Amino acid sequence: MRPSAARLLNILVPVKRAVDYAVKIRVNPQQTGIDLNVKHSMNPFDEIAVEEAVRLRERLKDAVQSIKAVTIGPPKAAETLRTALAMGADSAIHVELPDSAPAPEPLGVAKALRALVLKQSAEEKVDLVILGKQAIDDDAGQTGQMLAGLLGWGQATFASKVDVDPSTNEAVVMREIDGGSEEIRCRLPLVVTTDLRLNEPRYASLPNIMKAKKKPLQKLTPADLGVDFTPLFETLKVTEPPTRVGGGKVANVDELVAKLKEAGFTAV
Amino acid sequence: MPPAPPAWASPNVECILANVIPHSRLETLSFSVRSGGSKNHLWKPLPQWIAALKLNTNLAAIREIRFIVVLYDLPDSTADARKDSERKDLELRHTLLTSLPGYVRRDGFSTSAARRLMSTSGFTENQLTVREAVLTVCAQFPNTYWQERDQNEQDPKEFHAALSKDGWLGIALPESLGGSGLGISEATVMMQTIAESGAGMQGAQSIHANVYATQPLAKFGTKHQLESTIPNIISGKWRVCFGVTEPNAGLDTLRLSTMAKKLPDGSYSVTGQKIWITCAQVASKMILLARTTPLEEVKKPSEGLSLFCIDLDRSKPGLELKRIKKMGGRGVDANEVFFENYRIPADTLIGEEEKGFKIILHGMNAERCLLAGEALGLGYAALAKAAEYARTRVVFQRPIGMNQAIAHPLADAYMKLEGAKLATYHAARLYDDSRNDASMRQDAVGVAANSAKYMAAEAAFTACERAVLTHGGMGYAVEYDVERWFRECLVPRIAPVSREMILNYISEKVLELPRSY
């Protein structure tokens, strides 16, 4: 007999509103950044994180007490939270920044998330933070690790499989590493960052989209968390990569090889 | 000595196929393949990969596959081997190009433009949410999918399944029955978005009746009827068709002659003929309008009609379906339906006997709104494609869109669509408001809904025709989609009511002119 679930899990899923993956990125004329007047959606890795939290609940049923999505960003980032709610999160927190504020950096985000985890824990302890391994806009790939460091928690990064056993307070995580996978056993509380192969996020169904509109969405300010998002870095210049010069077409492999040889490539 | 050829990389490739592709929404897939020794190492597993790719339905987004091949230590080919490899090269490229479900030639402009032309200002948050979410579902079904359905006359059942899986068929049905309780304003956005995604009338018609024909059922059905049918329709288990039109009545609906004769045990025996019944081949249920009292015996022709929700059980005697060959939207079947003493139980009756016409009128304005939305979707899709072609097609050393003879008709088509859009969503809002506001006259809704259908159909026709002309010869090719939409855009001009009957209606109801018929 399996021992009955010793404790109930509370999961926090930080999500980021990013330029949609399908949008062609353009540098703005001032060369200070990219054109942001384009379609935005949830960072795909964060979508995987939300999906994983929802799947954990589907597997562990009532042992998952809460799934809370959180975002830090401008007023429009609330749309991203609604997406997370429609996918299956129970409630959401929006740390709202003014539209004019610069995008927060990973360290600022990690500090804010730490403050949030501590604040939440006054009510119910957070056991698991699941977030994307990186956001597709700045590709920093730092927030999860920094958060684990600041909290003094364990971290399981680049997860491709997550098994949580609430009765033993442990998780077994498969990590994607160079040359294969690594399976690690971790104690909760834990920070997990998601890799591409962890799952395939669902489309929100219409009934769930409608339900999401009624789920609680709490708004906080940076001051409520006592964090300062002043950037530590200054972006000097953003430029487009040089235009690629079109290549030639070859009719067959032999011609390709001939061309390669011509260009000075030799067989190994 | 050159190093021994490495173990063939196919496990890696299979790993990519199994793990990466199902998750990716990439448009381009690049494989880097190193091969030593004979080229056969490379060619041999390709058919399996292609088969694996084909099996995978999540490939819709992929439009291009690149194999980056690094060959080393290539043995000298004999002339024959070289010829063989050339042939295989060609075959390979051809197979790769044509076998991918989501593949469309990049240089062929045959994907719907990513940029949507329609202005969405003034739309409600719910409408925008619906548009966004439906687009995501539709993105799994590229234009090539719809070309194939049309060419091969195959029902788009995967599309119907994808929408029903996420609950879209219940958009305008009550929450208590598993629907989402939204209005026709949102359902119209859904239908427009489907058509606009490239699915056109085929996509719209494959679910259309499930959305509007269920309205009278939801409003007038008994508890038992609702609980036994609506959840199955929303889940996609049962599909619905709408059986009103008859060959000998046409637009003169009140003259329909299909009889449902009451038998002593309370059941009915149906005899008669219906025509233009969309999706009857795949539907399990039909919302049927039939006479329960002959025309000669009623005081007013609108009396004596009754509405039923019946099983279409092809194994039972007295039911025959005949598919009609048609101009457009060929993936979705349209049928002649013959009933001959087809028995239906007493509990199939919706609402009161003899009051069927009043009940069905309830759904008609809704249908006009949905049809208007579908027409708009077609129009915007065609216009977006035409504009993209006009921007990029260079003749006489300049993009053809620089010629005002190309640009102005498209600009004109845009304004016509935007005007029709305002009329359409105005009508849809009136319809929704009228459900909660008894003071609103049904005539006002009728005028708005008919006007919207008329304007949207005409605007769509203008946009589709000009899109074909803008494409020149290419507009005549299936690959460019505009010919498909052009063929389909005749539907909203004709159905569910003709342009001329709408003009009659407006003349009579608004201008108070004497009735001509």
From TrEMBL, chain A:
Is Ribosomal protein set as a keyword in this record? no
How are cofactors bound according to the entry's free-text note? Binds 1 AMP per subunit. Binds 1 FAD per dimer.
Entry keyword set: Electron transport, Mitochondrion, Transport
- GO cellular component term of the entry, any: mitochondrial matrix
- Is GTP-binding among this UniProt entry's keywords? no
Ranges for domain Electron transfer flavoprotein alpha/beta-subunit N-terminal: 31-229
List localization entries. Mitochondrion matrix
Q: Which GO terms describe its biological process?
A: amino acid catabolic process; fatty acid beta-oxidation using acyl-CoA dehydrogenase
Where are the annotated coiled coils located? none
Q: Which cofactor does it need?
A: AMP; FAD
Which superkingdom?
Eukaryota
Tell me the CDD domains matching this sequence: ETF_beta
Q: Name one Pfam family in it.
A: ETF
- GO MF annotation list: electron transfer activity
**How the protein assembles, per its UniProt entry?**
Heterodimer of an alpha and a beta subunit.
Briefly, what is this protein's role? The electron transfer flavoprotein serves as a specific electron acceptor for several dehydrogenases, including five acyl-CoA dehydrogenases, glutaryl-CoA and sarcosine dehydrogenase. It transfers the electrons to the main mitochondrial respiratory chain via ETF-ubiquinone oxidoreductase (ETF dehydrogenase).
Family, according to the entry, reads as follows: Belongs to the ETF beta-subunit/FixA family.
For this entry, the protein name equals Probable electron transfer flavoprotein subunit beta
Originating organism = Mycena alexandri
| Organism classification | Eukaryota, Fungi, Dikarya, Basidiomycota, Agaricomycotina
TrEMBL record, chain B:
Acyl-CoA dehydrogenase/oxidase N-terminal domain residues: 124-237
Keyword Flavoprotein included in the entry's annotation: yes
Q: Note the Pfam families from the entry.
A: Acyl-CoA_dh_1 (PF00441), Acyl-CoA_dh_M (PF02770), Acyl-CoA_dh_N (PF02771)
Domain Acyl-CoA oxidase/dehydrogenase middle residue range list: 241-341
Keyword list (alphabetical) reads: FAD, Flavoprotein, Oxidoreductase
Annotated GO molecular function terms are: acyl-CoA dehydrogenase activity; flavin adenine dinucleotide binding
- Signal peptide extent: none
| InterPro entries in the cross-refs | Acyl-CoA_Oxase/DH_mid-dom, Acyl-CoA_Oxase/DH_mid-dom_sf, AcylCo_DH-like_C, AcylCo_DH/oxidase_C, AcylCoA_DH/ox_N, AcylCoA_DH/ox_N_sf, AcylCoA_DH/oxidase_NM_dom_sf
Per the record's keyword annotation, is Oxidoreductase included, yes or no? yes
Q: Which cofactor does it need?
A: FAD
Domain Acyl-CoA dehydrogenase/oxidase C-terminal span(s) in chain numbering: 355-510
Give the family, as the similarity comment puts it.
Belongs to the acyl-CoA dehydrogenase family.
Protein known as: Acyl-CoA dehydrogenase/oxidase
